[in-house]
Amino acid sequence: MLQRHVFVCTNERAPTNPKGCCLHKGSDKVRDQLKKRLYDIGLKGVVRANSAGCLDQCEHGVTVVVYPEQVWYGGVTAADVPEIVDRHILAGEFVERLMIPGQPHLEGKRSGAPLDHRAARDWLARQHRDDSDGEGGATP
């Protein structure tokens, strides 16, 4: 059973549309990087990443929403994917700098439950070990 489900807006509009679209802002790269990272960690069947049609947040750039917490992120780039995966999807900590303002359903919460899966725990332990060896290697 899925523990988290991630949707990436990959909607495409005409280049002349004043709203713009997530696809032209790089959402396909965000989705591809997200799927690859989840696969590399070993989370197939535990976390699913999908393309989504328009999420109606065009003014915020590439939009990603993570369920079950229903946390909305905006202006996401492929470079942000490791942070979203490691901090939110695995550890349960919301990435506040990317959160779209005005999410009253969160009631001030800044985190959810960490992912309950061996691959996630192993990944986080390796990242922590890499951080503490003084040579870096972990994603912030």
What structural keywords apply?
3 helices; 4-stranded mixed sheet; 140 residues; Glutaredoxin; disordered C terminus; alpha+beta
Named CATH topology? Glutaredoxin
Tally of distinct domains: 1
Given helix and strand content, the structural type is alpha+beta
CATH homologous superfamily caption: Glutaredoxin
User: What helical percentage do the residues reach?
Assistant: 25-40%
The counted number of beta strands is: 4
Residue runs with pLDDT of under 50 for 5 or more positions:
135-140
User: What is the radius of gyration?
Assistant: 15 Å
Shape estimate: globular
According to CATH, what is the class?
Answer: Alpha Beta
* End-to-end C-alpha gap: 28 Å
Order of helices and strands: EHEEEHH
Give the topology, please.
Layout: E1 4-9, H1 27-41, E2 47-52, E3 64-67, E4 71-73, H2 81-90, H3 118-132
Parallel strand pairs: 1-2
Antiparallel strand pairs: 1-3, 3-4
